[in-house]
């Protein structure tokens, strides 16, 4: 089973895929073998991902995060004395202007007093100009280095596909820019660790990932129930995320099915894995099986059929660090599912159901019928990712959703799952 991944780092002048990336073909076992050699061995603290030498070297430690729905009272290296940004304008440059950037990030930044989106660099001059015209952005760059080199730009928002996240994040941090990076974090754990290492080398800068957005209303309530043992001992977690998106074999290739662009990221598995991690803590081991029912699609960029290796059906058994078992069903070939998409957490005293549709909760004490559960007063969040990023820059407040350390952890689950189904064996997260 092959997976094509881009060269980790190197000169880049545009956001177009390099020919070496498109033509490079590596067997996934060879890649896994090389990655395993890069990983550190030994035990790790419960909430700290093991670090390994990145493709660019270096090593450091600790985490950043997100606020907005009640920030953690935690010491932060950033402070008003070091970064007196609270009364200064913040200028943002965009590197990649994908759908989320246009739909959410640009309007989000432009709605904040004292924040200006001043430049955009997209996959082509023409597409960048269209974005600039639509949103009134004064400058279109043809090379990301123009944005990194501009001393008047304080922060960058990286809205490319995952294959560029690591490189552009590292370069942004090295250039002294605060970084908001689109999810998923990277194509694989090595590149995710490179991002974490670069952020740790610049604790004066904010480094934030766009969080999994589906549970913003309810996640604090779920965390409280878990932390207070309101469900008793959590023993089983069932995760369902299905849709019919891959059923039509004549649909053109989507970038999420493109190995060079997505890496080990598989459908929406990373999103639900991040949510489970947010609520219940780290995963220790996975055993997975997968299928790719549609093995090629027409690539509209090249006009040719592209061989698909990313699964469109995935099942995962996982063991969490808290002792619970988690079962995932993620599919893009399931139409009209009988069970709505969501997560069920079964404890010895109660079961908590979370429904993705409407971000709703239902609680069922043992032996009773489920009843609706509202979020705790004052905790129901909503989308304010851009505002939280700016708050962290201005106030030195720690990021909470989602830190680079948490991103590395969910990337470990994603890559371990790929290894498991492709190699036919269980995989310990600590080995990734």
> Can you tell me the CATH superfamily of the largest domain?
Dihydrodipicolinate Reductase, domain 2
Helix and strand sequence: HHEHEHEHEHEHEHEHHEEEEEEEEEHHE
Number of separate domains: 2
Termini gap: 18 Å
Reading off the top of the CATH hierarchy, the class of the largest domain is best stated as Alpha Beta
Q: Write down the overall mean pLDDT.
A: 85
* Global geometry: globular
Low-confidence stretches: 4-81
* Oligomerization state: single chain
Question: Could you say which structural class the secondary elements and strand pairing correspond to?
Answer: alpha/beta
Total number of helices? 12
Helix content: 25-40%
Number of DSSP-assigned strands: 17
User: Within the CATH hierarchy, at the fold level, what is the topology of the largest domain?
Assistant: Dihydrodipicolinate Reductase, domain 2
How large, in whole angstroms, is the Cα Rg?
A: 21 Å
Question: Which band does the percent of strand residues land in?
Answer: 15-25%
Q: Order the strands across the largest sheet as they lie in space.
A: 16-15-14-13-7-12-11-8-17
The major β-sheet equals: 9 strands, mixed
Named CATH architecture of the largest domain = 2-Layer Sandwich
Topology readout:
Elements: H1 19-23, H2 28-38, E1 90-95, H3 99-110, E2 115-121, H4 125-135, E3 139-140, H5 144-149, E4 155-158, H6 165-174, E5 178-181, H7 189-200, E6 207-209, H8 219-227, E7 234-242, H9 259-262, H10 269-280, E8 283-291, E9 296-299, E10 304-307, E11 313-320, E12 325-331, E13 342-347, E14 350-355, E15 360-365, E16 371-373, H11 385-395, H12 404-423, E17 427-428
Parallel strand pairs: 1-2, 1-4, 2-3, 4-5, 5-6, 7-12
Antiparallel strand pairs: 7-13, 8-11, 8-17, 9-10, 11-12, 13-14, 14-15, 15-16
Helix pairs in contact: 3-11, 6-7, 7-12, 8-10, 10-12
